[in-house]
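cron nightly-structures :: item 1 of 1
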Amino acid sequence: MAHLLGADDLRLAYPNRVVLDGVSLGFNDGDRVGVVGRNGDGKSSLLRLLAGRTTPDSGRVTTRRGVRVGMLDQTDSLDEAATVGHAIVGDAADHEWAADPRIRSVITGLVADVPWDATVGSLSGGQRRRTALAALLTSDVDVLLLDEPTNHLDVEGVTWLAEHLKERYAAGEGAFAVVTHDRWFLDEVTTTTWEVHDGVVEPFEGGYAAYVLARVERDRQASAVAARRANLMRKELAWLRRGAPARTSKPKFRIDAANALIADVPPVRDTVALTRTATARLGRDVVELVDASVSYDGEHDVLHDVSWILGPGDRVGILGQNGAGKSTLLGLVTGALEPTSGRVKRGKTVRAAWLSQDLAELTPHVGSRVADVIAPLRAAFTSVGGDELTPGQVLERLGFTSAHLATPVRDLSGGQKRRLQLALVLLGEPNVLVLDEPTNDMDTDMLAAIEDLLDGWPGTLLVVSHDRYLLERVTDDQYAVLPRADGGGSATLRHLPGGVEEYLTLRAASREEVRPFSRRSSGQSVTTIISGKDEDRLANGGAQRHATRKELASLERRLEKRQAEALALHEQMATHDVADYAGLAALTERLRGIEADVADLEEQWLELAEDA
């Protein structure tokens, strides 16, 4: 495999700490790397050094001649005044980018709902992030460096990105490195793991599951100080081995070694003890929704006729697109909302808490030290097993050291604020806990620690997250907020016995039809969604539309064939005897004919796409 990019003896230091010290590594064709480590240990700094965006204090980064490197940073450099279309495809004409299947796939997968003619400066944070990712993925680079690419992507978007990366390069070609807290994504797309810690980068063979195994083997031999961290990793490994078969079918996942390491590790949750303890705290009645509907305008329901029973100790994951009605459902459960029809029955002992995305629980404490925020909380956290954790021990479990206690809340990092918020909520002694996207700003080690803490939390848990690993790890049942089958415009709740995979299948089956890449007027999305109001027209035009799509598929196949022929001719001409003028002239004439055919096929494709 050809060498693409390398780093030799890199050192990067700030006045108060050394980030990287003597790091040497490299990318070869075919490398698929996941980068993990605690927040602040230098994962993003490493990618910026490799991309040439940061200059090391010593050492150097080298690239093979002609190798192109692209990076998705956590902050983009998009032109505020540029349109979305220009940011993604530049000055390319419609027929140029629309003829490229990869560009079409990227646009459909990431920015189908983003106005094509909107300026970058007018976009929301999530739309802007997806636009920056789309702009990178439509470019032709040999090495991709992606820093938190799954941020602002829902479950479907993360799944699409995983498939794109797996198919982007042919086997043994190209390379990419990914920094992300999404452990499912890491295990799905990477074959090598780099752990950044204590100024070094330690390589492990395999994706996240294989990395966990290697970590357990390494930590078993570590000092007593690291024993608790090792136990968490053993627990994580036990869940990975006992979970879905897909996780353990990786060829480099050493099954026998894993089984030996986890032989004495119990299941992650004692469901019998959990139910018994939760029932003692909550009683048998928690929350019951009976034909509950919610309408904000008095006419159109957001949720329609939802009937659902939450019991003591239930662990439930909620899936759904942004704006589908998940927050409305949670409002019914917690009592923040009342139904406009139907009813909600809540147990008399229910005390619900909602871990919000906006850190509202910390607002009164921004000027206070962490120690002063925790000091008034005298209640202990009592786990399912009967162990009691003091507020200080809860903070320790969530990664806070004694040095953090004197830090003002406003000076904490995003991940530290999120963990302090969780500690405050847990120490408030709720018995129904709602977690809304709790993985934001968390590294993989801290996520494992939080999951371990939640395993022993004795109550009913609802989790809303686009992180499918977290959902599968901490919940036992998944439900989806989905549009009604009768097309009424509102949503209802559906149980997912098949979990996240069933949700993705349902979404693919019911996804609204889109018109691909028609010429757009100002303000239109890159795809024009056909509304449910057009059902009559759709019924009448279904046969014609089916025929059009078949013709589009045929045109695409013919395009690919003619483009391949043109490429072969270019290669033939490059090696042809330059003295054979007649032969070169004949090849040139054939090439012109093929290029004319390609232009004609592209024009036909664009015309048909108008009516598809």
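cron nightly-structures :: done
The first strand starts at residue 3 and ends at 14.
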